[in-house]
Amino acid sequence: MHLANPAVHRNTMNQLPLLTQHEALTPRMGDFAGWNMPLFYSSSAAEHSATRENAGIFDISHMGQVYVTGADAQPFLNSLFTNDVSKLKLGRSHYSFLLNEQGGVIDDLILYRLAEESYFIVFNGARIEEAFGILTESATNFSNLNLRWEKEVIGLSIQGPGVAALSQKLVGLDLPEKRNIIMASEPAVIASTGYTGERGFEWFGPIPEGIKLWEKAIELGVTPCGLVARDGLRLEAGLPLNGQDLTRETSPLAAGLKFAVKLKKNTSFRGQDALTEGAFSDKKLVGFTSSGPIPRTGYPVQNSQGEEVGTVTSGGRPPGAKQSIGLAWVKSCAVEGDLALVVREKPFPLTVVALPFI
Known about the structure:
By secondary structure, the chain is an alpha+beta fold. The protein has helices spanning about 20-25, 45-55, 75-80, 130-140, 165-170, 205-220, 225-235, 270-275; strands at about 15, 30, 35-40, 55-60, 65-70, 95-100, 105-115, 120-125, 145-150, 155-160, 180-185, 190, 200-205, 225, 285-290, 300-305, 310-315, 325-330, 340-345, 345-355. The protein has a 6-stranded mixed β-sheet with strand order 11-12-13-10-4-14. Strands 15-18-17-16-19-20 form a 6-stranded antiparallel β-barrel.
């Protein structure tokens, strides 16, 4: 996970609506996607373990919250996103991509169908301005359509095996057994989605209600967690990070995410032709383990002949683990061979494994 220079003055960054609540817990703060974000409170390892073992709460208010409504909402969204919006059932959500015309990833997102002609989208914080600009420009081709980017809002993610027992106390609703279920849409969108590989829910809504939910969760013993733990949890779950594992020069198909790309749906979408023609198929995103040094973003990957054939995009070592884990883009022709992680010009064997790591 790329974090900007911590020396950047906080006044130049966007401030979270929960800043006062965060500062009361004295976290380490840092710049992420132009936002002054909690990196960790006690320690990233403790927060990681708390989420895996019980329940953790993450402030995700930096992410973009967009509503799309109107009779043309479905065809409009289907012309932009890779997944098939016409197949998305009421009260459900799905994963999708917004691509450039070359088939590269501008953003990965979650699309929620709130009602027959009402949709809600959560974009990555670093991509929301560009994504909303693309939506606004494309909307001129549709007559019955309304777009609304909500900015004065809070986003919270409450994750972990202990969340089911707390869900009624937190939001007055039972946590669904299945993922991607919309639990409520007013005054907040609440759904069984997340970015940790655990059961839990995400909450997107008004600031006053968001502050109350944060305070109630802390009161009930849910552990506040920062970006470092979130990054480690999503990596362990084999989930890519936009701007790092997914970029404008990578294809979602080559990243192993074809379940969210419907090349044969009735509506064509941005970047479809490029994907059909095999854009960026010369490399693949792979998961790997290694007993060597902790892999860091940018470390080279080489084959048995010592040739550089790839690059690490995410890496780390989960709390208590004996092996490191990571994601790397590797030349397609080299994926099946012996590979090594190169650290300070020294190779350390790595093993390509199926995702997720947990």
